Amino acid sequence: MEVDLVTALAIEAIVLLAYYYAYRKYQYFLSKPVPCLKPTLFLGSTAPMLFRQRDMPSQIQIYYDTFPDAKLIGLYDRMNPIYLLRDPKMIKKLGVKDFNYFPDHAPFMTNGKDEEDSGKSLFGNSLFSLRGQKWRDMRATLSPAFTGSKIRHMYEFVAKCGQSMVQFLKAEAVQGKELELDMKDVFSRFGNDVIATVAFGIEVDSLRDRENDFYVKGKQLLRFDSILVLVKMISIMMMPKLMEKLGVDFVDPKLTQYFKNMITDNMKQRQAQGIIRNDMIHMLMEVKKGSLKYQDEEMSVKDAGFATVEESTVGKASHTRVWKDNELIAQCFLFFLAGFDSISSAMCFLAYELCLNPEVQQRLYEEIVETDRSLNGKPLSNEALQKMVYMDMVVSEGLRKWPPGIIMDRFCTKDYVYDDDQGTRFLIEKGRTVWFPAMAIHRDAKYYPNPDKFDPERFSEENRSKINSGAYMPFGVGPRNCIGSRLALMEVKSVLFCLLKDFRLERTARTEDTVKLSKSSLGLNAENGIWLKLKPRSGL
Asked: What totals of helices (H) and strands (E) does the chain contain, helices first?
């Protein structure tokens, strides 16, 4: 009986201490001039996302709308204080002008203490996860591979994948099949083929060979909705140091080894046979030799469209770091992640909007016909693609309404005095995280009147000057923006050209009036897919 009493008292003490610890944690914003959402004990404000009860865009929108007059608000990710910044002016200030205070993403696959120790995982070594000087050096290393001239060399690979996709769909239509398709499946396969040829140096055809090894293993690699992956990710977030010591990675090590072997074997074969192919593998080989240098060309010009981001001085800097194979191979994994999911989702929602807005689709088709006529029988070139004004307006609006990055995070690496020049001034301590809610800002009527309407005219030559530059960030903001925006835009425009030239996008009984977003997805994906009918234009 005495032992039971001691045990009960010990458990009670532990519970009280845990409660007191959490209570103290949730006092953080009381000393700040910042309105705060009421947290749930131990779970904070993010439980609906963590336990897949609500999709991420909807949950972020709830945060954003709770204090509509505030420039920033407080919330808790479990017990960690998070600043949600609602003011585009201050987002630009923290993300660009004061970037040196917020240069990193919040620690996830690394312990956040030693910038040189990024772990052994592909994700941990990727440009997204790297921190401090190592990130700066990697950004400067890769930046020369993503200039306008380098991306133009990759156009033929992208165009070939688009043409192959359309030829497949045309053959299906000729056989009399009703082309009612889940566009996520179509564009994921197209994106997979683009990444295979551009980043991995191999050619696959995922529409005709639906179970090819590269596509199947790629889908397995990106399965973030399983219980096991969820448990791993929560463990990594809760105990990053322990998980890193144990070598726990949310990506299956057998799959990562498959992709690593593919790249290293490709490199060895090219080196032995003197093969040169203008893709990412070639760029990485040039990096290893130290012969890939940044050239200050047209990077300051929006050469790929309005949404193109500019490279900062970080990407243009020189460095002397020698990279290991594992560190370079990790970047191909990041390109795969972006191409397979993020870019395919952007294409998917753009196709959906064109279907729901037939007048926009028709006008874009007319520009496609006019551009095709001007080529006089020659194949579409990257130069001709980039001259398409309405195409760029359509794509820019698609990225406004459906940005690949729902939120962006920045990690404070040294004490920062927040000052909005309008009386709000306080300290953001080192180790705190700030979120930039891109999608919520893109849908704020303050910056985009009638924000739910798909209206490419927002991005016409006459209206572009009216856009608040801080309120448009489809590829991020500041030096930590998306390095591959040019490749992504070229990919989206190229596939739209090929597809709309021969097909009209129409509704089916399965086309939702309002897309229900997936609760299990880390990105922007439809719960029930995006089902559209591809109706062949005359002449097929």
From this structure: 22, 9
